[in-house]
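Handout, page 2. Input:
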Amino acid sequence: MNKFEQKIVLNELFKEKNQSITCIEDFSNEIFYEIFDYFNGYEIIEKFSNLNSQFDKLLYSSLLLIKTHFFLFHYQKKIISTFNKLEIFSTKIYSNLKILSISFSKNIDLLDAHQWEIIILKYYPQLEKFYLNYYESINNDNQYPIYSGKINDFSSSFWIERKWIFYVEINFLNIEYKIRPYNKKWYDDRNNNIINYSTNLTLKFIDDSIFEEIERTLTITKIYHLEIFEKEISISILIRILNQLSQIITLKVHSILTDGTTEITFEELDIVWSMKEISKITKVYLKEINNIKQLNVIFEFCPNMEYFKVGFINLLDIQLFFRTIFNNIKYYNHHPNSLCLNIPTADDKILEDIKETIKYENLPPPFIIKRVLDNVYLKWK
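Output:
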């Protein structure tokens, strides 16, 4: 109820009672509930408790929903420096808490998925939303400790049932580990309502220390989804990152640098060959493609790709683009189940050209081929 509606309801209640009220105790419980709705729970307890028996009954009535917000920034270090202290603190909070947000740093041991399960089940059984943030500063003089416990399982049934997802983000200043309520991602199968709850790593900034920082995250959790924000990532860097994150099943990059300024070493070629044997990447999202070489890189690095999405095709020769895709499909004897391509000049003629190219390359025709605005969709059985 907004403030205007509250005022109307309150005025009406006062009008009904104005002839019979001689003292505050004559107000109905409904009027007090409306008054309480203007206050935070702490303020209600502070102002109205221990006044008389009527207020005590109201404050502890199951009909009264108290809004309570705890802000613990000044006491953060004392309260959540260990799980034992967090447990002591939890005994002093209402068990019907709906939303809990905690931020901390300098104690990596607090990123223990099993311990959080125990705390939440025991002290917060009605918790609906859980926000957790752990920050590590990058390149500081006092290096934060490396996690030495068992690799965490933030995608166990406990977290899946509650739809709480574990994310890792590496940016210019910090490595941030966080838990958030689920939001749909590009790689979720929306048609079959299949949700992937495994850990997502986002790289917002890449420099020489990125490999060390990735290694730190792997001591805490396995990574299954990778998103790289770098405007253009070199092939050499991409090879090393993919080799380091051998468990990933989805890959999202903005664009791949293929201008020949950096040459691939023999060692990196060996890595590519070994990656092709063990690659688990099935879904790829390339936000922007500027040349055909980028297509070849994607098919070379992700031979088991089942879904391929291109956000923007910045090419003049669209026919060459499709021929390259279909040639790669023939060469690797494996084609994606789905293609989603954004083509600014898309029209119905594009669909006919695609059908002709598929027929010419002697490939099985897709059972769905359609255009929605600038997007072209192809789907095979």
